[in-house]
C-alpha cells in the first residue's frame, strides 16, 4: 500500500506490489514487539498515521523519528496513555541529528542489542 504516493524522481523505479497489505498489527503481536521505531521518509504523513494505528492495535510503544506530529498531538498521545504505552519523538532526526542516530542504531543492530 502506498499511502503518500511515490516521488516523481523514483516513480519509474518503484512498482506497487499486487499483493494485499500485510497484517502489520498481527505481525507485531506474533513477534512480541515492545517498541516500534518510525523511520519512514520525511513527508510520510498518511503512512505514519496508518502504521501508528497498527502499533496501537498491537499494544506497542512508539519512537517517532520523523516530523509527523504524533507524540505532541492530544489525539494520539491520549490513545497511547490510555493503553499505558510509551510514545517518544516527533522529529528525532532533527532533534538528535540523523547521522548520530543512524550510527547508534547501526551499532545496536550489529551488536545484537536491537533485532
Question: What layout of secondary structure does this protein have?
Answer:
Blueprint: H1 24-30, E1 35-38, H2 45-57, E2 61-64, H3 74-82, E3 87-89, H4 92-111
Tell me what you see in this structure.
The chain is mainly alpha-helical and 115 residues long. It has one domain. The protein contains 4 helices and 3 strands; from the N terminus they run H-E-H-E-H-E-H. A 3-stranded parallel sheet has the order 1-2-3. Helix 2 links the parallel strand 1 and strand 2. It starts with 23 loop residues before the first helix and ends with a helix. The mean pLDDT is 87.
Question: Could you name the key traits of this structure?
Answer:
single chain, 115 residues, mainly alpha, three-stranded parallel sheet, 4 helices, 3 strands, 43% helix, globular
Amino acid at each position: 500500500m502506498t499511502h503518500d504516493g511515490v516521488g516523481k524522481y523514483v516513480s519509474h523505479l518503484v512498482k506497487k506490489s499486487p499483493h494485499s497489505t500485510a497484517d502489520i498489527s498481527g505481525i507485531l503481536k506474533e513477534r512480541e514487539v515492545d517498541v516500534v521505531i518510525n523511520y519512514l521518509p520525511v513527508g510520510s504523513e498518511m503512512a505514519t498515521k496508518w502504521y501508528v494505528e497498527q502499533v496501537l492495535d498491537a499494544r506497542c510503544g512508539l519512537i517517532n523519528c520523523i516530523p509527523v506530529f504524533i507524540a505532541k498531538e492530544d489525539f494520539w498521545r491520549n490513545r497511547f496513555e490510555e493503553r499505558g504505552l510509551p510514545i517518544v519523538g516527533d522529529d528525532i532526526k532533527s532533534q538528535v541529528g540523523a547521522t548520530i542516530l543512524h550510527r547508534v542504531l547501526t551499532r545496536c543492530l550489529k551488536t545484537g542489542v536491537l533485532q
